[in-house]
Amino acid sequence: MPLLAGCKVQWPHRRIKKETDMSGVIVFALEMGVVALIALAIYMVMKK
Description:
Layout: H1 2-17, H2 22-47
Helix pairs in contact: 1-2
């Protein structure tokens, strides 16, 4: 869980910096997807 907390701390300033840049939005969406996959993997491991 520290990993997810670290990502959440990084996102806001990164989003503000690239707010007008479309690539920033895409990067943000990709990061959300990566975190979702990690969370899903952790959930699957815990379930076993």
